[in-house]
Design a protein that fits this description.
The complex is a heterodimer of chains A (251) and B (265).
Chain A: E1 9-20, E2 23-34, E3 38-42, H1 49-56, E4 64-69, E5 72-73, E6 81-84, H2 96-106, H3 111-124, H4 140-153, E7 158-162, H5 170-187, E8 191-194, H6 198-204, E9 207-211, E10 218-223, H7 235-248
Chain B: H1 13-35, H2 47-57, H3 68-99, H4 101-114, H5 123-130, H6 134-158, H7 162-170, H8 175-212, H9 218-227, H10 231-259
Helix pairs in contact in B: 2-10, 3-4, 3-6, 3-8, 3-9, 5-6, 6-8, 8-9, 8-10, 9-10
The chains are: A alpha/beta (251), B mainly alpha (265).
Chain lengths: 251, 265
């Protein structure tokens, strides 16, 4: 699966297994992600997608197996891991700008660097105008954009996204997905994007990992080699979407 | 920027006028009830009598041995001494108990043993230890204010949104960073609630402490009013206790609104 354009593997997941008591949730999962790659993960409902992300982000300890970032075991204190959650995670007592800065502040970046990066990122996502507002003064979609900006701001080794746009309407979703792809291309982060929306997965990612029902393993891997910006009416797009849909069909 | 202009909220007319009507009616009814003798003036003083005494007490030390503002000053010293000590001990303790297992494990059992004992029950021991001076009353008041401080700060920290904590963890935040950057700000609304509740507790215990062991203060003034069969002095003391408490409450409310701009609108 290595091709010439991909310099090296950034993330290596080796035999990752997670059980809750007797319940086996993640069953011996192995895969790797190249540096700067955008991988989407889709799977049937309740297949353990969130457990998968929580284990990858080290929020949950793995029962066995390991996650390597640049060849060393993943550690949130050493590596830059970002996680965009399904629900908005803005700190209500911080302004938009201070919220986006939060990840960088935790990492102890110098103030000057933080400010420069903030100016750059807020400008890219068009949040400059409301930089000094508090989260309760802006819409839910903007709150999610703050979380996305905050995640990109730390220059992540691994950016995990758990259905970040699941609660938004379709039109806004496409807009924010374009914005996400734009951020990813400019900032060259490695992204793992979980979604149950297959169209979304095909729209944003370079490769799709299809998960099976519990106990979860990787059932298939689909390359999405389409030019951007993508057109979801394009026959090739539709073919890939239907192919992935068939793969996770449980009815 | 114009698109995000602040929304001006107007107070409805009913909420502007009715409070004045209600307060005025209350005092007029009270005056009438006493003046017409429905309630004899040995049992309750009319507002006008109380007002007269109020002005008189600024210059006349009799019959209770001190001027009104002297009583008030003694009470305020005691109340605030105890109150600030309660905040200084209770808030950090409660916050720490909410986040650090060591603090919760060590302090919680003792706190739970002491908590159900009403501060007034400590008065006899306090008199043994400190006599009837300022330190003893501050101790009683401190005990009363401590409980709401600890409980509110503790609950405030426990109510921190777990997703925010997860978010901070994925960025590699340490326990101390999470405590300082997430738990304490999250607990602030509860902590400000504690400021109000603790003040009410302190003020209540102040009067109780002064009723039993004092030679000056508003509570002492109330007791003297009873001993001398002067209902107007009792009412004046009660009124001063209420007024001062309400005034401090307003100040705390102001501070709270300013500090919590982002959390509450």
């Amino acid at each position: 699966m290595q091709n010439a354009a991909r310099p090296r593997n950034k993330i290596e997941v080796c035999n990752l297994t997670k059980r809750f008591g007797e319940l086996l949730v993640l069953n011996d999962i192995s895969f790797s992600v190249a540096e700067g790659e955008f991988v989407a993960i889709v799977g049937p409902t309740g297949c353990g997608k969130t457990t998968f992300l929580n284990t990858l982000s080290c929020l949950l300890p793995a029962s066995s197996g390991q996650i390597l970032i640049d060849g060393t075991p993943a550690n949130p204190k050493r590596h830059n891991i970002s996680y965009v959650f399904q629900e908005p995670t803005c700190l209500p007592w911080r302004t938009v700008r201070e919220n986006v800065a939060y990840g960088m502040e935790v990492k102890g970046r110098p103030r000057k660097e933080i400010d420069e990066r903030l100016d750059h990122i807020l400008d890219m996502v068009g949040l400059t105008q409301c930089a000094n507002l508090y989260p309760n003064q802006i819409s839910a979609s903007m709150q999610q954009r703050i979380a996305v900006s905050r995640a990109f701001a730390v220059d992540p080794d691994l950016l995990l996204m758990d259905e970040p746009y699941g609660q938004l309407d379709v039109k806004l979703r496409f807009y924010l997905e374009d914005e996400l792809v734009n951020l990813w291309r400019k900032l060259k982060s490695t992204v793992l994007f979980i979604t149950h929306n297959i169209e979304e997965a095909v729209y944003v990612s370079e490769r799709i990992l299809v998960l099976s029902n519990k106990p979860t393993r990787i059932k298939a891997e689909v390359k999405v080699d389409l030019p951007r910006p993508r057109d979801f009416m394009d026959p090739e797009f539709v073919r890939i979407r239907e192919h992935v849909t068939d793969l996770i069909r449980w009815w | 920027m114009t698109a995000y202009r602040e929304v001006v909220v107007r107070t409805p007319l009913a909420l502007k006028i009715l409070p004045i009507v209600s307060v005025a009616t209350f005092f007029i009814a009270w005056e009438i009830v006493v003046r017409t003798g429905v309630v004899p003036d040995t049992m309750l003083a009319a507002p006008t009598t109380v007002t007269q005494l109020l002005f008189d007490k600024f210059t006349n030390m009799d019959p209770d041995g001190a001027l009104l503002h002297q009583h008030a000053w003694v009470s305020i010293q005691e109340a605030f001494g105890g109150y600030f000590l309660a905040l200084a001990v209770g808030l950090p303790l409660g916050l720490a108990m909410g986040w650090f297992n060591v603090a919760e494990g060590l302090a919680r059992p003792i706190f739970e043993i002491i908590r159900p004992i009403p501060p007034v029950a400590w008065i006899p021991l306090t008199i043994f230890w400190f006599g009837i001076g300022l330190p003893g009353k501050i101790f009683i008041i401190w005990l009363g204010g401590l409980v709401p401080c600890v409980i509110n700060a503790y609950v405030g920290v426990k109510m921190t949104n777990p997703t925010l904590i997860q978010m901070a963890r994925t960025y590699g935040a340490s326990d101390w960073q999470i405590f300082r950057q997430l738990c304490i700000p999250s607990a602030l609304p509860m902590v400000f609630g504690a400021l109000q509740i603790a003040l009410a507790c302190c003020w209540t215990n102040l009067v109780a402490a002064e009723l039993l062991a004092a030679d000056a203060g508003l509570g002492f003034m109330i007791t003297m009013g009873r001993r001398l069969a002067m209902p107007e002095m009792v009412v004046l003391g009660m009124f001063m206790v209420g007024l001062t408490g309400a005034f401090i409450g307003v100040i705390i409310d102001r501070v709270e609104k300013r500090l919590l701009a982002g959390i509450r609108r």
